Amino acid sequence: MDTIATAGNKGKTVRSDCFVTFEMKDSGGLEIHVESKVDVLFGNSIRELAKEMLDFFEVKNAFLKIEDSGALALVLAARIEAAIKKLVKSSMEFLPEFLQENQYSTAKDRNRFSRLYLPGNTPSLMINAGVHHPDGIILDLEDAVAPDKKDEARFLVRNALRGLNFYGAERMVRINQGERGLEDLNYVIPHNVNLILLPKCEKPEQIRDVNLQIDKIRKKQKSIDPVWLMPIIENALGVINAYSIASEASNIVALAIGLEDYSADIGTQRTAEGTESFFARSMVVNAARASGIQPIDSVFSDVSDLEGLKQNIIRSKGLGFDGMGCIHPRQIKVIHENFAPSVDETEKAKKIVYAYHKALEQGLGVVSLGTKMIDAPVVKRALNTITVAVKMGKVNENWRETYEQV
């Protein structure tokens, strides 16, 4: 039986984290050792937290070493708990308080132009991610976390959901595949997550399994806020089944595509032009639109090529996508500016809405703009365009009054 466990990260480049070594002993009581550059200021509070947690998990005899690199209390707590639970069987959780700013739900049709991927085991990238104002922040438990770190990452992601300020961004978590992914849900569903990303989704049964697990967990919760789903299509089978996946459940809000894995699955290389993925991306867009949800494109991996990103967005928007993933904060502004409605799109939307309201005022049963008829779905899309343009500061909220004067 193991008597020593570790959790966390250390090294010259590690920031806002810690490395914990936990050793069970037969006797001798508790020994807590802290190494920190800020020991004078925070050493005692770190020791107090460690002692509180050891008592909480009823550990009587142990050696606990904490090598601190500027970790927040919620990070320290996650690392200590992860180390303890490798050796101590306990169903109890040592939970930080919820930030009031984090207790919000998100709408099914909210803008999802950008979603920022963050490794679920790297706290330094999480702490201030919200200040960049992506539409969504993804705490990734899947590909961005090394296999031997996946268990401890769950504690960190759980504590981040509870204790970090997301500044209004949609709180997203990408879980792992299969049984591990279903286990991941236990660590995030009770803690006010807004949306779950399902990687490598290829059959509607995967959606059913996730929703069954979510329902099982939420029976113990008081919250009735929805937990949204965003399946990610990443292989040829998933593309073929895109519509059955997208239409499987009412809490699916978007269908995304992951082009790195898809390209590998069909035996080709991903190119800037995207000809090799045209069929797959078109299938995802059509499946999403047919299901009344948002189609979301893959990430653009060259974070230094902002002009290349812009051109990629133009192609993506031309195919019908509503947004895309990003892997660096510098990509967010470019994504928002280029997925937002253009001047021409906004002006057309204004004319549609204005003509619709004028027709209503005049009691007309038929609404037209030029030679084209305007029906309810067209008006709804136009209103959505204007709403986004107002939010992006491209249109004044009193645009209709200004239009009347013109």
List keywords for this structure.
single chain; 406 residues; alpha/beta; Ribosomal Protein S5, domain 2; TIM Barrel; 3 domains; 8-stranded parallel β-barrel; 4-stranded mixed beta sheet
Account of the 3D structure:
This protein has an 8-stranded parallel β-barrel. With 406 residues, the protein is of the alpha/beta class. The chain has 3 domains: 82 residues, 2-Layer Sandwich (Ribosomal Protein S5, domain 2), CATH 3.30.230; 240 residues, Alpha-Beta Barrel (TIM Barrel); 63 residues, no CATH class. Helices cover 42% and strands 17% of the residues.
Uncertain segments = none
**Biggest β-sheet: count, sense, barrel?**
8 strands, parallel, barrel
Rough outline: elongated
Number of domains: 3
Report how far the terminal alpha carbons are from each other.
Answer: 80 Å
Radius of gyration in whole Å, from Cα? 24 Å
Strand content: 15-25%
Averaged pLDDT: 91
Question: Please, what is the CATH homologous superfamily of the largest domain?
Answer: Phosphoenolpyruvate-binding domains
CATH class of the largest domain: Alpha Beta
Oligomeric state, counting identical vs distinct chains? single chain
Would you count the extended β strands for me? 14
Run of helices and strands = EEEHEHEHEHEHEHEHHEHHEHEHHEEHH
Write the layout of secondary structure elements.
Blueprint: E1 4-8, E2 17-24, E3 30-36, H1 39-56, E4 62-69, H2 73-85, E5 114-119, H3 123-126, E6 136-140, H4 150-163, E7 170-174, H5 178-188, E8 195-198, H6 204-218, E9 228-233, H7 236-240, H8 242-246, E10 254-257, H9 259-265, H10 278-291, E11 294-297, H11 306-319, E12 323-326, H12 330-339, H13 343-361, E13 368-369, E14 372-373, H14 376-391, H15 399-405
Helix pairs in contact: 1-2, 2-4, 5-6, 11-12, 13-14
